[in-house]
Description:
By secondary structure, the protein is α/β, with parallel strands linked by helices. It has ten helices and 17 strands.
Amino acid sequence: MTLPPPATPGMQVEEVDTPALLIDLEAFERNLQRMADAARLAGVALRPHAKMHKSPLVGRLQMAHGAVGVCCQKVAEAEIMVWGGIGDVLVSNEVVGTKKLVRLAALASTARIGVCVDNAENVAGLSDAAVAAGAEIAVLVELDVNGSRCGVAPGAPARALAEAAARAPGLRLAGIQAYHGRAQHMRGWEERRAAIAATTAACVETRAAFAAAGLPCAVVTGAGTGSFEFEAASGVYTELQCGSYAFMDVDYGRNFDRDGRPFRAFEQALFVYATVMSVPARDRAVCDAGLKAIAFDSGLPLLVDRDGIEYAGPSDEHGTLRVAETNRPPRLGEKIRLIPGHCDPTVNLHDWYVGIREGRVEAVWPIAARGAMA
Length: 374
């Protein structure tokens, strides 16, 4: 059951019930514009990753800024995006299992749908589902680019899979998926550049193998918030799949730019709003945002504008705050803003976004694809 939203438009931000997920709308809008401008200047398409925000409303705003569509990781996410008015969705992942393939093919009857493959058996299953639905599904061969996850080896192995996809009824071979997830959080600029240079070389090798076999490769897609500048400038990638740029988080703030400074290409726009619910000691307070309100896979959250107070650790419903001797302890009932370590799984813990501007609630948006894992 979806709970009522923690706020209504027009109220002061201090009135928002907690824990709540806040979006600073001004920072968010600037982030959308900056990425759209970067893609346009580079002459590449922008297809933001909706697995981060899980909201057709946010996806439509990204498309209003020039995005060609969105990416998803799950069929359920893709369904919610299409039902929410987005007509071009790439499932940048493998989809396996008869029920999921039937759903994906049904979706392809009403929208432009693409999907990744790394296995010939999966290609056959996709083809059967597409033919049964009278639909066409675009297929991208996913390359293993040192991510130790999904993907087929570049070059000849990728070409062999592409040949199977090109022969399969109901499928259209679109090109290559080459996303280097590990590179997004390599801290040094040069380290990220070198990683993407190797990934780009794998794309060039594979594209040449496709061409030698007379296979099309109109799309080379990938990239993320931590590496997009390299893919955009490569002359090889045609699409960027960045997601976190819209909201940002603590972990991306640990990256460094070309000059060795903290990565600040985009602004922090997403916050978990919390209330101090206990002040049991001079050096300790407790807020109401713990494991069920914030993701901790990328470390602890940071407090905004409260020097001398650290988020020390979570339990299910509590977050313990450590207060320095030189700092005043927070007041009981005081509201605080936390920057999550990792935005994607934090979003998936909430039902609603509360959009704020100049200290007031402007919008309340459902996180429609929360929990969409199938």
